[in-house]
Amino acid sequence: MNPVKLALKSQAQFADLSLEGKNAYLQQVAAGIANIQGDDEPTPLSREALSRLRRFYMRRRLSDLALESTEDPLLRDTLQRMSEALHLGEVKTFIQHEAPAALQTLRPPPHGDDQLSFFVPPTYDAPLKDDHNLMDIAPFSLSKVPQRAGIIRHELPDCVITIEGGAVTGLITCFDYDIFLHMVTSLTTAMNDYRKAEKRGLRPSMPPRCYRPSTADILKFIRRGKGGRQYEQMESALDRLQATRIKITNLNHASKRRAAESFPLIGRFKVISRTKNGKIDMLEIEIPDWVYRGVVSPDDKPSVLTLHPDYFLIAKPLARFIYRLARKSAGVTGFSEIGLELLHLRSASKMPFHKFREALREIEAETKECPLPEFDIAIVPAKTGEKLRMTDRRRKLEWRKEKEDAAAA
307 and 181 in contact (C-beta within 8 Å)? Predict the structure, then answer.
């Protein structure tokens, strides 16, 4: 671990701070340590970690008792400074241990994840909207924590797609977007059941425009643990989803006219019931018209793509964006490439390009040991700069077998 060069407040200075001031100071120190270690977007300390750090910072040491019995002022001052330095060194180490570890590309599944996996339906992503697929872009912030305000703007050859978060709630994260995926999947599964029943000669009812999931169902589907923190984050995630608006401006270069439409990710939501601890239990979520029409299509071909169940185990937002792009562009042909500069634009990442490229290289290196679901990625030279190559592993095995068969013939 690299040495951390930070000037910490003395115990007396820390004691003079208010509770809010202590927490803000500890968050600042933890962020500073993370930045020195190369993490530009550190995850904030939890409330429990802050509580433990406050107690550790203020704990009484044996050296303090020795100081009280030392009569020589010069010796007492020297010992006090040595004791304070040792204590602050321990504080730095303790903060490093309390800070959330840097994310790996894939996280381990939660406890009990293998149970009843047979009944988990396939995962479906957003349907096409006016022939523009949200899988071409990142419809969420690539930050690990919610951003208070901001707009994500994607300029494509034939349109401009803008994702605008609420003024209070901020931009959605990729983890908020998991709830949207659950909604689309629930509707698609219901529509598939409708079509099967219709082919058997039955007269089923069309899927409702509202669906009622439980928080436990959502957490199991997105492969998250069922701890209290997950339940607490559910309502704020729903607030961000409801406040988010996606605007598509179609560019008609011939007529100079621009057709624009704005639509939400989810409609109205209502908390139907809560647990004894006041956490959300059952929900009612209104499905937006554009999602409903895209899935409940009259031509029997809903414009949705399936995602691998391990998508939810991808811990890094940038890696999730890359997987979605690979699924869209390489899922049919088995192979796709995109220049790193264009990829940087499509991601709408706030990182400067050189930092973005470093983050990509880190993901590329990690996926050699722990691959992304379905696809292999590699950064390769291009005519100008570099490009990201995305290859479907199943197709790669087929190509290899074809070459071996041709060589044997």
Answer: yes
Query: Looking up tokens 């988010």, which residue turns up?
Result: 244
Distance CA 144, CA 123 (A): 22
**Strands of 386-392's sheet in order across:** 335-339, 386-392, 375-381
- Taking alpha carbons only, the member of 252, 296, 289, 305 closest to residue 126 is 305
CB neighbourhood size of 149 (10 A):
12
Euclidean distance between CA atoms 148 and 171, whole angstroms: 7
Compute CA distances 29 → 25, 33, 39, 48, whole Å.
Answer: 6, 6, 13, 16
Overall number of domains in the chain: 3
> Does one domain contain both 225 and 280?
yes
**Listed residues 255, 280, 312: the one ending a domain:** 312
Question: What is the tens place of the pLDDT at every residue in 225-282?
Answer: 776 678 878 889 999 999 999 998 887 655 455 567 888 999 999 999 998 888 889 9
Query: Strand (E) positions, 172-215?
Result: 210-211
**84 CB-contact burial (10 Å; exposed 0-12 / middle 13-18 / buried 19+):** middle
The pTM assigned to this predicted structure is 0.72
